[in-house]
Amino acid sequence: MTNPTNSPSHIAIIMDGNGRWAKERGLKRTAGHEEGAKVVREITTHCSDLGIKYLTLYAFSTENWTRPKIEVEFLMKLLERYFKSELAIYLENNVKFKAIGDLSKFSKKLQKVIQDTQEKTQHCTGLTQILALNYGSRDEITRAIKKVNEQNLEITEENINNNLDTAGIDDVDILIRTSGEVRVSNYMLWQIAYAEMFFTKSYWPEFTKIELDDILSDFKKRERRFGGI
Ligand code: IPE
Ligand code: IPE
Ligand code: MG
């Protein structure tokens, strides 16, 4: 049944396939990450234009440290460059930036750039773009439960929810994973409890706003029951 009023508040994306995109074109994997960063900007500004409230992008997982050192180092440098170039774009589009994940594992320099970007976009009232950085859902839930304990609070869903990195942010309505893989890879396990899922064949560097628009119109046709009838 079509439900035209069914517009999502929170879209979460597992941006996957950068390496394969590059390899298939005879390029180094890093070229795929470089291209992927451009798509982050395109999709973020599109979501901002559409009036979406939250866009959460999986940029680096707690498991991605196991990749070759050279790739990890490239990704860290790319993040630093990304924040430097994106600040103006965030401000131009009234986009508030927020990071989730355990940032303490990053270099002091990168932590500072992340912190500065959060502060400088704090006043923005449009889209909130959330980047999941050294993010793992199991790690996030474990940290949340520790925080609940430290406050001598009862272990309840509400108290856990309020101590997640995503505290105060609506649950995920749409989860998208690019690149043809059909798995969630430790991403927002708590927040996707009732998300509608979409898996695209396209690799992240070739994902377009047209494809996102198609997903959004498909989403409107889905009937969400949340356990009811
Ligand atoms: C996603 O692309 C980006 C990160 C995980 C940082 P991948 O790097 O996982 O690309 P594939 O999946 O190997 O093609
Ligand atoms: C998930 O992709 C993490 C990010 C997109 C940052 P991976 O490429 O790391 O996931 P797996 O290893 O295919 O499950
Ligand atoms: Mg991958």
List the topology elements:
Elements (H helix, E strand, L loop, with lengths): L9 E5 L3 H7 L4 H22 L3 E8 L7 H24 L3 E5 L7 H13 L7 E8 L1 H14 L6 H5 L12 E4 L18 E4 L9 H13 L8
Parallel strand pairs: 1-2, 1-5, 2-4, 3-4, 5-6
Helix pairs in contact: 1-2, 2-3, 3-4
Describe the model.
The chain has about 230 residues and is an alpha/beta fold. It has a single domain, classed as Undecaprenyl pyrophosphate synthetase, CATH 3.40.1180.10. About 45% of the residues lie in helices and about 15% in strands. The chain is built from 7 helices and 6 strands. A 6-stranded parallel β-sheet has the order 3-4-2-1-5-6, sandwiched between helices. Strand 3, helix 4 (about 110-120) and strand 4 form a beta-alpha-beta unit. The chain is globular and about 55 Å long. The protein starts with 9 loop residues before the first strand and ends in an 8-residue tail after the last helix. The mean pLDDT is about 95. One 3-methylbut-3-enyl trihydrogen diphosphate binds near residues 15, 17, 18, 60 and 64.
